[in-house]
Amino acid sequence: LVAGGEHRLVVLDGLTTMLRRGYVREADVLNALTTRPRRTHVIVTGEDASAPLLEAADLVTEMGARKVPAHGRAIAHLGLDF
Questions:
Q1: For the chain, what is the domain count?
Q2: pLDDT at 36
Q3: What does the alpha-carbon distance between residue 19 and residue 27 come to, in Å, rounded to a whole number?
Q4: Contact 16, 49 (CB under 8 A)
Q5: Is 35 within the bounds of a domain?
Q6: I need a surface site. Which of 14, 18, 27, 43 has the fewest CB within 10 A?
Q7: Sign of the Cα pseudo-torsion (17, 23, 24, 26, in order)
Q8: Is the pLDDT of residue 4 over 80?
């Protein structure tokens, strides 16, 4: 999805959670990010990004969760939140 170059924008929503839980290897993610075509932009979301992931990023924005389904403070919607 990232390496092929057919997409100009790829959003990897919740990727940091997947990394933390071991569903995806960080080395594979870092390799995909650092070797992707220059025209492919990647947005990664999630809490507690690792130092190597932050270092590989071109831009880092820190936001605070106020009302999110994962914390039981909002209703989760099929197709949007899971």
A1: 1
A2: 94
A3: 10
A4: yes
A5: yes
A6: 27
A7: positive
A8: yes
Buried b (16+ CB within 10 A) or exposed e, 37-67: eeebebebeeeebeeebeebeeeeeeeeeee
Distance (Å, whole) CA 17 – CA 24 = 9
| Assigned domain for 77 exists | no
pLDDT at residue 13, as a whole number: 92
Report phi then psi at 16, rounded to 5: -65, -35
Give the domain range for residue 42.
Answer: 9-71
Mean pLDDT for 2-25 is: 94
Token code pair at residue 68: 């999110």
Cα within 13 Å of Cα(66), Cβ side: 1
Residue 14, domain member (yes or no): yes
